[in-house]
Amino acid sequence: MRRTLLPWLLAIFPALLWAHPEWKEASAIGVIDEKNSFALTVKFDVPSFLLGQLPKDAPIKDLDVLMFTPNRLTSSIEPSRQQFLAGLRLEADGKPIAWTLESFPTAEQVLAQSGRQGEADRYPVMLNAKFRATIPPNTQKLVLRLPDALGTVFTNLRKGMEFQTVMAISKNEPGEFQIGDGTVATDNQTIVALLADGFGHVLPDGWDHCLFMLAMFLGAASLRQALGRSLVFTLGHSITLSAVALGWIGNPGTWIEPFIALTIGLGGWMAYRGSATNRQMLVVPAVFGLVHGLGFAAAVSDRLKDWDNGSIVRILVGFNIGVELAQMAVILTSAGLLWAILRTGLTETKVRRFLCLTIAVIGFGVMAWRAAGIAGLV
Q1: CA-CA distance, 230 to 286, in Å (whole number)?
Q2: Residue 330 predicted with pLDDT over 70
Q3: Global confidence as pTM
Q4: pLDDT above 60: residue 34
Q5: Statement: residue 195 has pLDDT above 90
Q6: Domain ranges in the chain?
Q7: 216 closest CA partner among 174, 266, 171, 291
Q8: Largest CB tally within 10 Å, which of 134, 144, 168, 268?
Q9: Rounded to the nearest 5°, which phi and psi values hold at 172?
Q10: Ordered DSSP codes for 30-44
Q11: Cα 258 to the chain's mean position, in Å?
């Protein structure tokens, strides 16, 4: 134990010796006025940010090189200004909002402030950067992310006299501020957002979902039959997603992921064999849809707590219509690509069987990989 501890102490001691003697956490104040203008002021240690390090980790010798090497401080301001602006992100009800930079510390301000603090206390140099954004009317929820190099930022957000919230924003935990009462957004806005959300869970995010749809298409005798299977599949995952959202069954965890991959493998294999009847190929998507519904529930688990029983029907309808539209897009695109491939002179049966077998291999392989990941083997 002593042999292991001594090298670590020898390695850490120089860092402790040269690191900031009096580092301070960054802080931020945000104010939303009656015109939905969001003014944000961030107070942070400028020299350490220019180095791309947390204040507590920035060595004094590196700070001195930055501050007292001719033109080094001046040339670092503009890239850091752009880096700060790129790392500052704001979402209003899930939609990104652009920031306008109003002021950022200059090299002259940094040197002047450090000089006023005296030789012994020249670091940290805490100065303000100011930004402004316009929040859309009727916004319910804001999500604020700050540059990672600031570390943990204690943030005070205020909207008129309505509310004031204080929280710590870090790299892994952005600030979430509920600024509406949840009743202002119109039904049309909500439905559109849910449609987009459901569509996005398949395209572009759900590559495994797309593979399953491709297997259903390749195993169908016609485009109409494939679209019917897609609809049955949607009804299946609607059932389990509803059950989780209503609290009838527990929220699934990562254990569901290998089973989703298994349905892909089985779907590809059944389409490859081509021995299932049309009735069986309607039951299979329904059953597999139940499994995928649990996967959807796991994917949106962070939002399930906000779904109340009164709005659950509208939410599920909007989300699942979005999913179904994406599935139809996958099937129609697959039909177009298959038609183009067959125009080259290849035999349809061979192309279908090759693609089905490929999907089966991928599905079973991903299942094994995910199972091994859950077991901690990879």
Answers
A1: 9
A2: yes
A3: 0.48
A4: yes
A5: no
A6: 22-178, 187-374
A7: 266
A8: 268
A9: -95, -10
A10: EEE-TT-EEEEEEEE
A11: 22
